[in-house]
Amino acid sequence: MFKRLFSLVLVVALAAAFFPLFATIGDRGDVSPLAESYLADAPDALGSANLVTSVIVTYRGLDTLGEVTVLFAASAGVSLVFSRLGSSSDGRRPVQNHAPSELVVTGAGLLLPLIFVFGVFIFVHGHLTPGGGFQGGVVIASGVLLALLAGTLTELSHGMLSVLEMLSGAGYVAVGLLGLWLAGGFLDPRFLPTGEIGSLFSGGAIPVIYSLVGIKVGAELSGVIDAMRRRRVVE
């Protein structure tokens, strides 16, 4: 009885706390002065056709750096937890009990090249079309998952994943510092030519930033997937 009463009081308190926020949600007839500045100045200043993702990695680049850091901490924590849960006294690794079905193997053979190419396409073209480094990295990690399920990959090199994470993360920070040194601020992409808006080689360093983020996200999520696969349930 007490638990039900406590749950009811908690739900009512949360509803009262969030009701003012929900009550103010609605369509805005105009945009804020900051958004007006982005809309008016950013396309010409950055040379990027996709304004939303360009703002994320330039004007709000410190937020993106924080998101990358949080993802790294989460993936490291997941890998640590599963490695401890999956450890055994005899040091044996878990054995796959069932062979992958013919449908999964055939589908993986057809789809894996397309998935990896599509993931690279998403973060290379993030300054032109909807997408970016996070989305492309997730697509690549999904391809790794399919390869593991189909038996195309039996082991992932954690050393290689660590190197990819380290190099891409260091490269991301280095690009940010180059923007601070050669342009107008941290992660300012204009230290590289902005090019003609709408072309592949445009947006300054934005494609480079997205490529580094995509590699880092793909490597980290692939490490999480492999850590979950390696987990051994001790009965």
Name the beta content range. Answer: under 5%
Helical fraction equals 55-70%
Determine the N-to-C terminus distance: 35 Å
Query: Radius of gyration, rounded?
Result: 22 Å
What is the total number of structural domains?
A: 1
What composes the largest sheet?
A: none
Description:
The structure is a single chain. The protein is mainly α. It has one domain (51-84, 98-230). It has helices at 2-23, 33-46, 51-57, 61-85, 102-124, 133-150, 158-182, 206-230. α5 (102-124) packs antiparallel against α6 (133-150), α6 (133-150) runs parallel beside α8 and α7 (158-182) runs antiparallel to α8 (206-230). The two termini are 35 Å apart.
